[in-house]
Amino acid sequence: MYYLLLIIFYPISVLPFWVLYGISDGMFFLVYQVFGYRKNVVMDNLTKSFPGKSQEELRIIAKQFYKNLCDSVVETIKLLTITNAEINKRFTCNYEVVNNATGKGRIVQAHLSHTFNWEWGTVASNLNMHVTFTALYNRVTNEAFNKLMYKMRTRSGSIMIDMDDMQSVMAEYQKKDICWCFIADQNPSEPRRGAWVDFFGRETSFFKGAELIARRYNNIVLFGTIKRMKRGYYHLQLEKKYDNAKATNDGEITTAYVRYLENEIRQQPDNWVWSHRRWKHIRKASN
Fold it and tell me: Which of 55, 70, 194, 199 could form a disulfide with 188 if both were Cys (CB 3.0 to 4.6 A apart)?
């Protein structure tokens, strides 16, 4: 099955970008106009997150989100064949924030989010950082797709660690020259054990592991977000937030990240993944 996927996707990957974006436009018509993929979820999320916007304004955001989503699909397929020079031209970052902080016996960890196109960031970052870009990921249920995604994500030498293996390998990797990357806006597997923070007016459970790791090992903490500059071009902006994580209070880093994330989403709302069921969990009252 894996090789069948390669046979299907490799010829698509070699197509020039103008053709790929034509395919993306066709996908958008099917996903948005014909099938309405999770349209109710997207509109419900947007309506509750931006109560001051009109329905027309929300539809404009939703429509552009779907266009960005379809672009991200063809751009991810392009990772099979895109050259390093091309991806460096299309995905930029102030990598010096990481490079200036490493090499001093300290680990840097970046808290990022599901903003497009994070898959390109996984590859581009390891081409430009002085240390190895290391990220956690959730396995795709289909083993063939999981293998294909792993191949694309690690093509530049990035390390991808299964979330289920995090606890057993964390101490070992803390001894290596790496930069941790945490996609910190995802739902925790056990919401009741997550950090509950107000997010767009709703109490929301956030993955707490990134903060726990930062405080345990006193890692340098960066926050970052990916901006879509124009079609096919992105910029990851990193900011150093905590140099002494061990001195922070419980929940402080997570709360600060959520405030940062909310502000960044407001600036470019169509570039965040609104089709996720981000608010599916409700906090249960403690006895």
Answer: 194
